[in-house]
DNA sequence: TCTCCGGGAGAACAGTTGTTAACTGCATGG
DNA sequence: CCATGCAGTTAACAACTGTTCTCCCGGAGA
């Protein structure tokens, strides 16, 4: 798309990314509201003042991290919910997909779970907005399902929100089980599948 | 039960409670991992070193707060889930009960939601333990329901966990809507009721 | 080739933090 | 009534924090 950046801007974006990466690593053992600006720059190996060239504050950095963690996830959502297979297979695939994502980006998942109700307002709002968009996308996808005939918009959004909450909940469970024996991860996958199955059943009889 | 405490121990417990209260107030705008010991003692009007007479660290204080916020909630759980009325009435009553609790103890609810996935391990574990106990209690209550015939223990615990998660989720929503117009709170109550109804339906057809 | 711009470095600032030590006053148990 | 134990105080410690100002240097545009 855009032609190659100049050496100048490329270097800038590189340190910016280094700051984001270092912050994300530090946030595995603390919350954003206790993350110090100097702490981050020290981890990158850069002067404290350099931080201001990229972010106004650590809260600002947090908002950028939300974008990084959730922004690129939208395409995945749509394909997951789309009703192209039988319910049980779709559930299994969704749980697998979540497990894979947690294994691939554990720090991102931890960050979102931690800061969703965390102590930094702008970050909470950024996460709430992203999750809200997720819910709307899921609703749009659900609306295309033939089983959704007769559902009003409120019901669809309720169900979509339930799915999004469930996604985060199981992601968090997978995160806790990351360094546990594989048997534990299987247990989590089984539990998540059962929950989704129950929701699926409730969905099927909603209009009775 | 226990005869009246001496003047000495009574005063100790009073400052201890003052520390807990001050910390809880401070935690409305930050997370536990950034809460300073001096910050708390300053708010109480007591010397920093006095803190050590009551807690080893702020993490320790956090665990005590978990006890305070969740420990006295167990009786409420059992009565809420008990199947003494029709489903819709029970749902309405449960949602009302949650709304009332959030309105009465908003700081406690915020603390639990924030620190459940927060940056302080011992506190996370304390919350996980308490919520686990909740789930077990709900399961025991569900097991007494005639509709639970044929459910194995794993299914019951799955459903119980779903209810507990749902409880926290709606509590968090009520918290966000605390200073919003009452219409917003009604909307949250309506949403929570719909979610519970869907789960209830799925529960009714689980064994098909 | 020269000038300019901006990412980054360096030093210094006033405050803050957790933790230690030695103390004071007073309720308590013998 | 007196000695003891303990909640709370005072003072000091080195280490750390966010922020400002001044400077440097090398890529970019003319």
TrEMBL record, chains A, B:
Residue ranges constituting the HTH tetR-type domain according to the UniProt record: 13-73
Lineage, opening ranks: Bacteria, Bacillati, Actinomycetota, Actinomycetes, Kitasatosporales
InterPro entries reported in the protein's UniProt record: Homeodomain-like_sf (IPR009057), HTH_TetR (IPR001647), HTH_transcr_repressor_FabR (IPR050692)
Protein name in UniProt: TetR family transcriptional regulator
Recorded coiled-coil stretches: none
Keyword annotations: DNA-binding
Pfam family, one: TetR_N
Location of the DNA-binding region in this protein: 36-55
Alphabetized SUPFAM superfamilies for the sequence: Homeodomain-like
UniProt KW Disulfide bond keyword: no
PANTHER family with a match to the protein in the record: HTH-TYPE TRANSCRIPTIONAL REPRESSOR FABR
């Amino acid at each position: 798309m855009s032609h190659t950046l100049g050496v100048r801007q490329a270097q800038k974006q590189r340190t910016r990314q280094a700051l984001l990466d270092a912050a994300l690593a530090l946030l595995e053992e603390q919350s954003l509201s206790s993350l110090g600006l100097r702490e981050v720059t020290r981890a990158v190996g850069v002067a404290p003042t350099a931080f201001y060239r990229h972010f106004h504050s650590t809260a600002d950095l947090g908002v950028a991290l939300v974008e990084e963690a959730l922004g690129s996830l939208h395409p995945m959502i749509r394909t997951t919910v789309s009703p192209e297979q039988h319910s049980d297979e779709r559930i299994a695939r969704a749980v697998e997909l979540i497990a894979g994502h947690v294994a691939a980006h554990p720090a991102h998942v931890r960050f979102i779970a931690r800061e969703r109700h965390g102590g930094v307002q702008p970050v909470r709002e950024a996460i709430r907005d992203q999750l809200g968009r997720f819910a709307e996308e899921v609703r749009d996808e659900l609306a295309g399902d033939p089983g959704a005939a007769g559902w009003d918009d409120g019901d669809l959004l309720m169900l979509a929100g339930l799915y999004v909450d469930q996604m985060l909940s199981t992601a968090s469970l997978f995160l806790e089980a990351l360094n546990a024996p594989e048997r534990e991860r299987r247990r989590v996958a089984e539990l998540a599948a059962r929950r989704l199955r129950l929701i699926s059943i409730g969905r099927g009889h909603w209009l009775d």
